[in-house]
Task: structure prediction
Amino acid sequence: MAKYVLKRVLMALITLLVVICLTFFLMNAVPGNPWLSEKTPTEATIDALNAKYGLDKPLIVQLGKYLENLIHLDFGNSIKMQKDRPVLEIILTMFPISASIGAIAILWAILVGVPLGCLAAYRRGTWVDSLLRVICTVGISMPGFVIATMLLHVFTGGIEGIKFFPALFKGTPESYVLPCLALGFYPMCYLSRQTRTAMLDAINQEYIKTARAKGLRNGKIIFKHALRNALIPVITYLGPQIAFTLCGGFVVETVFTIPGLGRYFVSSISNRDYPLIMGTTIFLAAFIIAMNLIVDLLYKLVDPRINLGKGGH
Amino acid sequence: MKKTKLLSLLLSAALVVGLLAGCGNGTQSSGETPDAQNSQAQETSGGNETVANEITVNVASEPQTIDPALNSAVDGAIMLSHMFEGLMRWVDSGVETPGSDGTCNNAALDYGQAESYDKVTNDDGTVTYTFHLRDGIKWSDGQDVTAGDFVFSWQRLVTPETAADYNYMIDCVVNANEIMAGEKDPSELGVSAPDDKTFVVTITSDLPYFTEICAFPATFPVREDIVSNDQWTYSPDTYISNGAYKMTSRVTNSEIVMEPNEYYYGVDTLGPSKITFKLMDDANAMLSGFNSGELDFIEQMPTDEVAGLLASGDLKIVDYIGTYYVCYQTQKAPFDDARVRKAFTLAIDRTYIVEQITQTGQVEAGGFVPAGVYDAEGATGDDFRTVGGDYYKPTDADYEANCEEARALLAEAGYPNGEGFPVVTYLYNTDDSHKAVGEALQNMWQTVLGVTVQLDNQEWATFLQTRKDGDYSIARNGWIADYNDPMSFLDMWLTGGGNNDAQYANPEYDAKIQAAKASADPAERMQLMHDAEDIIMGQDYALCPLYFYTQKYMLADNVSGMYYTPLGYFLFDHCTKG
Result:
């Protein structure tokens, strides 16, 4: 077990290094640079800017320097979006806000999605199943900004007489409601569908028939025996999804004006803010790798038949 | 077996704790987000029964910087103009802004930190301005503002290491260009402070808009000990300013809050006891915030709402000095031929574009320098566009005649009815409104001239690079004035200029612009600039202006006292609410 974990951690570090190098060369391969605008500064100013931020050196030297700093946990400073502010500080300020909304969102998605999936599987073919299928298909196929904008419009005063929540994020409990609802809707629907499929597989297994034959209660069969087996694909999905959701959603954060990290994944690229692109990418990549590791180890808990030492399940 | 089970339990606990930690951290840090400040403010203003004169506005999203020297954006300039004050400043002129429907006045230039200045023309043609600073001007931490602070700030602006986008705003100062090019030391800049109350600046030749530059954010003073900390703009404790307001809170991507600077000489005359600039990205959210009463002022709203808001009178439209235009790659066939460029320029129905597509009161452009830019007479006389006249008839009344001429020109260039004309591409940055204009242009050029035009769009930074490199045939473009003078629109077309996207090169044009820059006589200077525009527009048709920009905004009914400069700066420091 310990050997397995050690091996995985080493693999994770190598994966991270590959991600860093790939991101670095890709972002530099994209046309454009951070200094362009409708009014481009003079040639001399651009040279000065490149010199100030070390962009005048060959790429390989820049990458070497970056990796060297990274060992000391120095992610560099933002060069455009928040000029001269350390990237690590930006991430550490923004992440808790995104994470708090993301955590609530994913929690409600699990607490509602998984039971709904079980219900749909248990009542398969009935109107309950059909209704849930319609809701979940809508949730999975509707773009996030439509849901977010709709919620914003309906509940913040867009309709006469209905103003339950503030339009601008204030950090108060009521400002959390709409963003969490919008952010958790997609994972909820996805989880519910995932659970239903896995559950149907499990229900048809021999051991469930045995349980039934023993005369166990339905609830106990579903939630204790079937669900445990059905959880494997759900956990697989949840690992990276938790990392994504906790890092915030671009759409939800812009629509609800939440000062979170999510927006930087997209806007750092359109701004060509190189250190910020690197910082956010490394952060998310490390997070996902860690979650995947936890998930792999968790399989063991759910299904003792899985032998980690011998190369997974 | 037991051991592994225990470990797995621990791991799953880690997963759950991770989630909960997210919650925990969040609530903790959200306590430090705007909410905390709000409740604090409520506490301090508690007991006061009347409506607090506090206004909340939105002009844009998180600014890239609020360092006066480094800022290059209009939204940053608006915030800076509230917190800093230059030698000169904008004040309410008392004259209503046309189109504002009584909600906004024009701004006029007045003395700021300086109470007067003397101007002397030297023997070598240079001009020396001596500014006498006001008594009792102080930084928001109580220290005196000195002439030395201005010397430091102006030198800092042109120092190459500062890498300020807007360093060229003071390129008129003696030695500024040499310093920016790294040939001279910043200490050689033509500025000095003989004593704490006197700031002397020498410029190479007199400029009618020099005092306006002294009210431009890049020239605002900053203090050496403050800006030596490169994180100074991120905390109210280190963000020391000399203007009417001081920053009291800054939450990234959320808000910048300012309150009156008690050390400001005019603090008693100020309006709001608190101005909050909300930093937002989403137009739907801005409109929702305005409708729900959480915002008193917005500039952006969803495009499809504009027509309705305009009809209801809630949306106001005022002048904005800028031109939306199309530029041709003048070095590459087929647009290296002025006849082809003129044909394309004439074949456009500008009235259709402003009335059917942009729909917010834009004016059809018949020249490159937009309406509202001063001519020799300044604010009182006719503007540059009126004096210069149109280079073609821009409205639909003459559209048929224009089309006839366009077809004739294209035939003369060797492409009768568009035969033999290569397929060309119109390039724009990915955006629905630019796309709509592009589609209209495509349609007009194809129907009128019989040519085939393809549309291509690119993501913003890629687009800028492509356009700058001249790697296009026809491209969308736009320019907003930095200062109210035609030069702001004309010197960019000098051969080899950094913003010369058209790759335009004409020695005759360069000569006129250089002569205008060297001229001390305002009338002669204006004439030279008219001559230059005659060359680039009337003779070479290097640019194809479509319309002159307008600025739209919505202001809450109970707010009054706002004023505006046509450079796009809204000022709220004398607003009253209620």
Remarks:
- Chain A touches chain B through 72 residues (CB under 8 Å).
